[in-house]
Write a structure and sequence with these properties.
The chain is of the alpha/beta class. It contains five helices and five strands.
């Protein structure tokens, strides 16, 4: 039986920290679905289409990676995608506390989906999409934190 995992997030934008977690997940699972979801608590700066394009370009030569979009609960998406695992990246103790709570709720919603926590590599612990968005919005150099070029900021 194939081990399929979902790595879900808004990925606005997809960072080298996300890439770090994908690399670790690929050593554990046969197939990894990078699922771009809509988070009602976040204001996205980049369209779903842009994010999908950027991530697909990063993994175009890896048949084990599929990039999809979804709405609704991630645990429901896992069921639809045939995934029994959900991958979550952990950078610090606060991430762990938030992710642990979410994993417990997801387990109640679907006990067949197991959440797997992967620790960020030390060089990726400070990287977040929020950091990249902040740097980009002020015209600062964000390139150490992502592997592709973002569009020019409209305020420039």
């Amino acid at each position: 039986m194939e081990k399929i995992a979902v790595f879900a997030g808004s990925f606005c934008p997809f960072t080298k920290g996300h890439e770090d977690i994908v690399g670790k997940a690929l050593s554990l699972f046969d197939k990894l679905i990078i699922a771009i979801g809509h988070n009602i608590n976040k204001k996205d700066l980049f369209s779903v289409e842009e994010r999908l394009h950027w991530i697909e370009n990063l993994y175009h030569d890896n048949p084990a990676v599929k990039v999809l979009t979804y709405t609704g609960l991630t645990v429901d998406f896992c069921k639809e995608a045939g995934a029994n695992f959900m991958v979550r990246g952990i950078r610090n103790p606060l991430d762990f506390m938030q992710e642990q709570e979410l994993a417990q709720v997801n387990r109640q919603l679907n006990p067949k989906v197991e959440t797997v926590f992967l620790l960020a590599s030390p060089n990726c612990e400070i990287i977040s999409s929020s950091l990249v968005r902040e740097l980009w919005s002020h015209g600062a150099d964000y390139t150490p934190y992502i592997s592709y070029k973002l569009p020019e900021h409209p305020a420039k």
